[in-house]
Protein backbone atom coordinates (compact mmCIF):
# COMPACT_ATOMS: atom_id res chain seq x y z
CA UNK A 1 0.00 0.00 0.00
CA UNK A 2 2.80 2.38 0.99
CA UNK A 3 4.75 1.51 -2.16
CA UNK A 4 1.75 2.24 -4.35
CA UNK A 5 1.13 5.51 -2.51
CA UNK A 6 4.68 6.72 -3.13
CA UNK A 7 4.50 5.78 -6.80
CA UNK A 8 1.14 7.53 -7.06
CA UNK A 9 2.65 10.69 -5.51
CA UNK A 10 5.51 10.62 -8.00
CA UNK A 11 3.14 10.10 -10.93
CA UNK A 12 0.87 12.94 -9.80
CA UNK A 13 3.83 15.33 -9.56
CA UNK A 14 5.14 14.32 -12.99
CA UNK A 15 1.70 14.83 -14.56
CA UNK A 16 0.99 18.05 -12.65
CA UNK A 17 4.21 19.92 -13.44
CA UNK A 18 3.11 20.89 -17.00
CA UNK A 19 -0.11 22.32 -15.53
CA UNK A 20 1.64 24.66 -13.08
CA UNK A 21 4.94 25.52 -14.77
CA UNK A 22 5.29 27.59 -17.90
CA UNK A 23 8.82 26.44 -18.68
CA UNK A 24 9.35 22.93 -19.98
CA UNK A 25 13.07 23.26 -19.29
CA UNK A 26 12.44 24.06 -15.61
CA UNK A 27 10.08 21.10 -15.31
CA UNK A 28 12.68 18.82 -16.91
CA UNK A 29 15.35 20.21 -14.60
CA UNK A 30 13.22 19.36 -11.56
CA UNK A 31 12.93 15.70 -12.60
CA UNK A 32 16.58 15.47 -13.66
CA UNK A 33 17.80 16.62 -10.25
CA UNK A 34 15.14 14.46 -8.60
CA UNK A 35 16.82 11.49 -10.29
CA UNK A 36 20.16 12.53 -8.80
CA UNK A 37 18.51 12.94 -5.39
CA UNK A 38 17.00 9.45 -5.67
CA UNK A 39 20.53 8.08 -6.07
CA UNK A 40 21.80 10.13 -3.13
CA UNK A 41 18.88 9.07 -0.94
CA UNK A 42 19.61 5.42 -1.65
CA UNK A 43 23.07 6.01 -0.18
CA UNK A 44 22.26 8.39 2.67
CA UNK A 45 18.73 7.38 3.62
CA UNK A 46 18.92 3.63 3.10
CA UNK A 47 22.61 2.80 3.62
CA UNK A 48 23.73 5.63 5.93
CA UNK A 49 26.55 6.74 3.61
CA UNK A 50 27.10 10.50 3.41
CA UNK A 51 28.84 10.92 0.06
CA UNK A 52 30.26 14.14 -1.36
CA UNK A 53 31.16 12.36 -4.59
CA UNK A 54 27.86 12.50 -6.44
CA UNK A 55 29.22 15.32 -8.61
CA UNK A 56 31.68 12.83 -10.11
CA UNK A 57 28.93 10.70 -11.57
CA UNK A 58 26.73 13.65 -12.57
CA UNK A 59 29.64 15.22 -14.47
CA UNK A 60 30.74 11.88 -15.90
CA UNK A 61 27.26 11.23 -17.26
CA UNK A 62 27.28 14.67 -18.91
CA UNK A 63 30.68 14.13 -20.55
CA UNK A 64 29.82 10.57 -21.60
CA UNK A 65 26.60 11.48 -23.40
CA UNK A 66 28.31 14.50 -24.99
CA UNK A 67 31.18 12.45 -26.39
CA UNK A 68 29.00 9.55 -27.51
CA UNK A 69 26.52 11.79 -29.34
CA UNK A 70 28.92 14.32 -30.89
CA UNK A 71 31.98 12.21 -31.68
CA UNK A 72 30.75 8.61 -31.87
CA UNK A 73 27.36 9.52 -33.43
CA UNK A 74 25.79 6.79 -31.31
CA UNK A 75 21.97 6.45 -31.24
CA UNK A 76 20.60 8.35 -28.27
CA UNK A 77 19.01 5.44 -26.34
CA UNK A 78 22.22 3.42 -26.61
CA UNK A 79 24.28 6.46 -25.59
CA UNK A 80 22.09 6.93 -22.51
CA UNK A 81 22.55 3.29 -21.49
CA UNK A 82 26.30 3.61 -22.07
CA UNK A 83 26.43 6.75 -19.89
CA UNK A 84 24.63 4.87 -17.12
CA UNK A 85 27.06 1.95 -17.37
CA UNK A 86 30.06 4.30 -17.31
CA UNK A 87 28.66 6.04 -14.22
CA UNK A 88 28.07 2.68 -12.52
CA UNK A 89 31.59 1.51 -13.36
CA UNK A 90 33.13 4.73 -12.01
CA UNK A 91 31.02 4.41 -8.87
CA UNK A 92 32.29 0.86 -8.47
CA UNK A 93 35.89 2.08 -8.54
CA UNK A 94 35.27 5.01 -6.17
CA UNK A 95 33.10 2.92 -3.88
CA UNK A 96 35.57 0.01 -3.76
CA UNK A 97 38.07 2.32 -2.07
CA UNK A 98 35.72 4.59 -0.12
CA UNK A 99 33.52 2.03 1.64
CA UNK A 100 36.55 0.57 3.37
CA UNK A 101 36.37 3.53 5.71
CA UNK A 102 33.53 4.72 7.93
CA UNK A 103 32.18 8.04 9.15
CA UNK A 104 34.36 11.09 8.61
CA UNK A 105 37.01 9.14 6.71
CA UNK A 106 34.45 7.90 4.19
CA UNK A 107 33.22 11.47 3.68
CA UNK A 108 36.76 12.75 3.19
CA UNK A 109 37.55 10.01 0.67
CA UNK A 110 34.51 10.81 -1.48
CA UNK A 111 35.38 14.51 -1.25
CA UNK A 112 38.95 13.78 -2.32
CA UNK A 113 37.75 11.73 -5.31
CA UNK A 114 35.40 14.57 -6.28
CA UNK A 115 38.24 17.08 -6.27
CA UNK A 116 40.48 14.72 -8.24
CA UNK A 117 37.81 14.21 -10.89
CA UNK A 118 37.23 17.96 -11.17
CA UNK A 119 40.90 18.69 -11.87
CA UNK A 120 41.10 15.69 -14.22
CA UNK A 121 38.14 17.07 -16.20
CA UNK A 122 39.71 20.54 -16.14
CA UNK A 123 43.03 19.36 -17.57
CA UNK A 124 41.76 16.71 -20.05
CA UNK A 125 40.79 19.42 -22.53
CA UNK A 126 40.72 17.20 -25.68
CA UNK A 127 38.02 15.05 -24.09
CA UNK A 128 36.12 17.40 -21.80
CA UNK A 129 36.69 20.81 -23.38
CA UNK A 130 38.38 21.96 -20.17
CA UNK A 131 37.00 25.19 -18.78
CA UNK A 132 34.68 25.62 -21.80
CA UNK A 133 33.04 22.21 -21.48
CA UNK A 134 31.57 20.16 -24.33
CA UNK A 135 29.38 22.29 -26.58
CA UNK A 136 26.62 21.65 -29.12
CA UNK A 137 25.34 18.42 -27.58
CA UNK A 138 22.29 17.44 -29.63
CA UNK A 139 18.91 16.31 -28.37
CA UNK A 140 18.11 13.53 -30.86
CA UNK A 141 14.71 11.85 -31.09
CA UNK A 142 14.01 8.39 -29.75
CA UNK A 143 14.12 6.19 -32.83
CA UNK A 144 14.38 2.52 -33.72
CA UNK A 145 15.76 1.43 -37.13
CA UNK A 146 15.20 4.92 -38.49
CA UNK A 147 11.60 5.15 -37.27
CA UNK A 148 11.10 8.11 -34.92
CA UNK A 149 9.12 7.06 -31.84
CA UNK A 150 9.38 10.32 -29.87
CA UNK A 151 10.63 13.68 -31.09
CA UNK A 152 12.50 15.92 -28.63
CA UNK A 153 12.30 19.07 -30.73
CA UNK A 154 10.69 21.19 -27.97
CA UNK A 155 11.24 21.58 -24.21
CA UNK A 156 7.89 20.00 -23.39
CA UNK A 157 8.50 17.07 -25.74
CA UNK A 158 11.83 16.52 -24.00
CA UNK A 159 10.02 16.73 -20.66
CA UNK A 160 7.82 13.86 -21.82
CA UNK A 161 10.86 11.67 -22.34
CA UNK A 162 12.45 12.76 -19.04
CA UNK A 163 9.19 12.13 -17.17
CA UNK A 164 8.91 8.62 -18.63
CA UNK A 165 12.50 7.80 -17.70
CA UNK A 166 12.00 9.26 -14.22
CA UNK A 167 8.95 7.09 -13.54
CA UNK A 168 10.73 3.95 -14.78
CA UNK A 169 13.71 4.65 -12.49
CA UNK A 170 11.45 5.58 -9.56
CA UNK A 171 9.46 2.34 -9.80
CA UNK A 172 12.66 0.31 -10.20
CA UNK A 173 14.30 1.94 -7.15
CA UNK A 174 11.14 1.45 -5.12
CA UNK A 175 11.22 -2.24 -5.92
CA UNK A 176 14.86 -2.27 -4.86
CA UNK A 177 14.20 -0.37 -1.61
CA UNK A 178 11.33 -2.67 -0.61
CA UNK A 179 13.16 -5.87 -1.55
CA UNK A 180 15.34 -8.00 0.70
CA UNK A 181 18.29 -6.04 -0.66
CA UNK A 182 16.71 -2.76 0.45
CA UNK A 183 15.83 -4.16 3.89
CA UNK A 184 19.41 -5.30 4.30
CA UNK A 185 20.64 -1.81 3.48
CA UNK A 186 18.38 -0.44 6.23
CA UNK A 187 19.81 -2.99 8.66
CA UNK A 188 23.34 -1.87 7.73
CA UNK A 189 22.34 1.77 8.18
CA UNK A 190 20.86 1.14 11.63
CA UNK A 191 23.60 -1.12 12.99
CA UNK A 192 26.41 -2.12 10.64
CA UNK A 193 28.21 -4.28 13.20
CA UNK A 194 25.09 -6.28 14.00
CA UNK A 195 24.32 -6.76 10.29
CA UNK A 196 27.82 -8.12 9.77
CA UNK A 197 27.57 -10.33 12.86
CA UNK A 198 24.44 -12.11 11.59
CA UNK A 199 26.16 -12.98 8.30
CA UNK A 200 25.56 -10.19 5.82
CA UNK A 201 28.48 -9.19 3.62
CA UNK A 202 28.30 -5.52 4.57
CA UNK A 203 31.01 -4.32 2.18
CA UNK A 204 29.37 -5.97 -0.81
CA UNK A 205 25.94 -4.51 -0.02
CA UNK A 206 27.41 -1.04 0.46
CA UNK A 207 29.34 -1.32 -2.81
CA UNK A 208 26.22 -2.41 -4.73
CA UNK A 209 24.30 0.55 -3.29
CA UNK A 210 27.14 2.87 -4.29
CA UNK A 211 27.18 1.49 -7.87
CA UNK A 212 23.41 1.81 -8.20
CA UNK A 213 23.50 5.36 -6.87
CA UNK A 214 26.32 6.34 -9.24
CA UNK A 215 24.52 4.86 -12.26
CA UNK A 216 21.30 6.78 -11.52
CA UNK A 217 23.24 10.01 -10.93
CA UNK A 218 25.10 9.55 -14.23
CA UNK A 219 21.74 9.18 -15.98
CA UNK A 220 20.68 12.50 -14.45
CA UNK A 221 23.90 14.15 -15.67
CA UNK A 222 23.39 12.78 -19.19
CA UNK A 223 19.84 14.10 -19.38
CA UNK A 224 21.02 17.48 -18.03
CA UNK A 225 23.62 17.74 -20.79
CA UNK A 226 21.02 16.91 -23.45
CA UNK A 227 18.61 19.47 -22.02
CA UNK A 228 21.12 22.34 -21.91
CA UNK A 229 23.11 21.30 -25.00
CA UNK A 230 26.37 21.56 -23.09
CA UNK A 231 28.39 19.51 -20.60
CA UNK A 232 30.06 22.25 -18.56
CA UNK A 233 32.91 21.85 -16.13
CA UNK A 234 30.49 23.12 -13.48
CA UNK A 235 28.66 19.77 -13.64
CA UNK A 236 31.75 18.15 -12.09
CA UNK A 237 32.22 20.74 -9.34
CA UNK A 238 31.89 20.04 -5.63
CA UNK A 239 28.91 22.41 -5.66
CA UNK A 240 26.86 19.82 -7.56
CA UNK A 241 27.45 17.20 -4.85
CA UNK A 242 26.55 19.78 -2.22
CA UNK A 243 23.36 20.78 -4.03
CA UNK A 244 22.22 17.17 -4.42
CA UNK A 245 22.84 16.54 -0.72
CA UNK A 246 20.91 19.66 0.27
CA UNK A 247 17.94 18.59 -1.87
CA UNK A 248 18.05 15.16 -0.23
CA UNK A 249 18.02 16.59 3.29
CA UNK A 250 15.31 19.14 2.47
CA UNK A 251 13.01 16.44 1.12
CA UNK A 252 13.76 13.94 3.86
CA UNK A 253 16.07 10.94 3.99
CA UNK A 254 14.89 7.35 3.83
CA UNK A 255 11.96 7.93 1.48
CA UNK A 256 12.14 8.08 -2.31
CA UNK A 257 9.01 10.21 -2.72
CA UNK A 258 10.67 12.75 -0.43
CA UNK A 259 13.52 12.99 -2.95
CA UNK A 260 11.14 14.32 -5.58
CA UNK A 261 9.67 16.81 -3.10
CA UNK A 262 13.13 18.01 -2.10
CA UNK A 263 14.24 18.56 -5.70
CA UNK A 264 10.95 20.23 -6.58
CA UNK A 265 11.14 22.62 -3.62
CA UNK A 266 14.81 23.50 -4.18
CA UNK A 267 14.51 24.15 -7.92
CA UNK A 268 11.30 26.18 -7.65
CA UNK A 269 12.63 28.18 -4.68
CA UNK A 270 15.88 28.90 -6.53
CA UNK A 271 13.98 29.95 -9.66
CA UNK A 272 11.68 32.25 -7.69
CA UNK A 273 14.35 33.79 -5.46
CA UNK A 274 16.62 34.50 -8.43
CA UNK A 275 13.95 36.84 -9.78
CA UNK A 276 13.87 38.80 -6.51
CA UNK A 277 17.54 39.54 -5.90
CA UNK A 278 20.79 38.90 -7.81
CA UNK A 279 22.36 37.55 -4.60
CA UNK A 280 19.54 35.05 -4.24
CA UNK A 281 21.81 32.34 -2.83
CA UNK A 282 21.85 34.27 0.46
CA UNK A 283 18.05 34.12 0.60
CA UNK A 284 18.13 30.43 -0.26
CA UNK A 285 20.66 29.86 2.52
CA UNK A 286 18.39 31.58 5.05
CA UNK A 287 15.46 29.48 3.85
CA UNK A 288 17.48 26.31 4.27
CA UNK A 289 18.49 27.35 7.80
CA UNK A 290 14.82 27.78 8.73
CA UNK A 291 13.95 24.37 7.27
CA UNK A 292 16.89 22.68 9.01
CA UNK A 293 15.98 24.18 12.39
CA UNK A 294 12.23 23.69 12.15
CA UNK A 295 11.85 20.43 10.21
CA UNK A 296 14.31 17.77 11.30
CA UNK A 297 12.71 15.15 9.04
CA UNK A 298 12.56 17.45 6.04
CA UNK A 299 9.47 18.41 4.07
CA UNK A 300 8.36 14.78 3.98
CA UNK A 301 8.16 14.82 7.79
CA UNK A 302 5.90 17.86 7.55
CA UNK A 303 3.66 16.01 5.09
CA UNK A 304 3.53 12.94 7.37
CA UNK A 305 2.64 15.07 10.41
CA UNK A 306 -0.17 16.76 8.48
CA UNK A 307 -1.54 13.40 7.32
CA UNK A 308 -1.40 11.97 10.85
CA UNK A 309 -3.14 15.05 12.26
CA UNK A 310 -5.91 14.86 9.69
CA UNK A 311 -6.27 11.10 10.21
CA UNK A 312 -6.47 11.52 13.99
CA UNK A 313 -9.03 14.32 13.65
CA UNK A 314 -11.07 12.27 11.17
CA UNK A 315 -10.90 9.26 13.46
CA UNK A 316 -11.91 11.39 16.43
CA UNK A 317 -14.89 12.80 14.57
CA UNK A 318 -15.84 9.30 13.43
CA UNK A 319 -15.66 7.96 17.02
CA UNK A 320 -17.74 10.88 18.28
CA UNK A 321 -20.38 10.23 15.60
CA UNK A 322 -20.53 6.55 16.56
CA UNK A 323 -20.90 7.48 20.25
CA UNK A 324 -23.75 9.87 19.42
CA UNK A 325 -25.47 7.16 17.33
CA UNK A 326 -25.23 4.72 20.25
CA UNK A 327 -26.67 7.30 22.68
CA UNK A 328 -29.50 8.01 20.25
Question: Explain this structure to me?
Answer:
There is one protein chain. The protein is mostly helical. It is built from 14 helices and two strands, in the order ααααααββαααααααα. The chain has helices at residues 2-20, 24-47, 54-70, 76-98, 103-123, 125-128, 155-177, 180-190, 192-197, 202-228, 238-251, 256-273, 280-294, 298-327, and strands spanning 142-144, 147-150. α2 runs antiparallel to α10 (202-228). It is globular, with a radius of gyration of 21 Å. The two termini are 37 Å apart.
Terminal CA distance reads 37 Å
Shape descriptor reads globular
- Quick one: how many beta strands? 2
Instruction: Write the H/E string, N to C.
Output: HHHHHHEEHHHHHHHH
Beta-strand portion reads: under 5%
Decide which structural class fits the backbone: mainly alpha
Q: Averaging pLDDT over every residue, what do you get?
A: 89
Query: Which spans have pLDDT < 50 for at least 5 consecutive residues?
Result: none
Amino acid sequence: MRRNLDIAIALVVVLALPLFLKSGSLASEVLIYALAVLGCNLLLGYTGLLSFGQGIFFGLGSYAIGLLLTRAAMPMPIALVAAVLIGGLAAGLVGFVSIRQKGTYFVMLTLAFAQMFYFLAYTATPLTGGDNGLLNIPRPPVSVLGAILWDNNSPWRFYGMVGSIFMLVFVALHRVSTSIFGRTLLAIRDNEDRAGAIGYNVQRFKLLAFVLSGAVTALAGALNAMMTGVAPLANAEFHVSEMILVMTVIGGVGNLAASLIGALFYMLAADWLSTLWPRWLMLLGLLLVVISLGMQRGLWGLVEDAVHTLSARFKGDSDADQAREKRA
